[in-house]
Amino acid sequence: MSHCPLLEEVSALVDGELSGERELEIRWHLDICHACARSADAVVALKRAVGRAHHRDVPLPALRRSVMARVLKRRRGWRPRAGAIAGSVLVATGAVLLSVATYMS
């Protein structure tokens, strides 16, 4: 028996990305190799599960409100601190510039 195809090739087969002789070789291999056939089934199941998860509806309204409330609360919490930080940076920059100007004169 030939070596088992790589999982990437099994995934490509499941996605319909293989054609011609290589597709036939892998399909033949899956017919005779039960381990690879199980891997192919697992790839199909995984791709279906990801597809279902990807197409879910928007979050429940209560969950959405809760998340948005937390985001807005954190944003409000940063505004006063951001102003204080910006003010401190301006004062420090002014002090440095003043000391440099005094030193240069």
Give a short account of the largest sheet: none
What's the count of strands? Answer: 0
Q: What amount of the residues lies in strands? A: under 5%
Structural class: mainly alpha
Radius of gyration, Cα only, in angstroms?
31 Å
In DSSP terms, counting alpha (H) and pi (I) runs of 4 or more, how many helices? 4
Overall morphology: elongated
Helix content: over 70%
Work out the count of structural domains.
2
Order of helices and strands: HHHH
Q: Segments where pLDDT lies below 50 for 5+ residues?
A: none
Q: How many angstroms does the end-to-end distance come to?
A: 88 Å
Average pLDDT for all residues: 76
Describe this structure in words.
The protein is 82% helix and 0% strand. The model has no long low-confidence stretch (mean pLDDT 76). The protein has four helices and no strands. It has helices at residues 7-14, 20-32, 34-54, 61-104. It starts with 6 loop residues before the first helix and ends with a helix. It is elongated, with a radius of gyration of 31 Å. With 105 residues, it is an all-alpha fold. The chain has two domains: 1-56; 59-105.
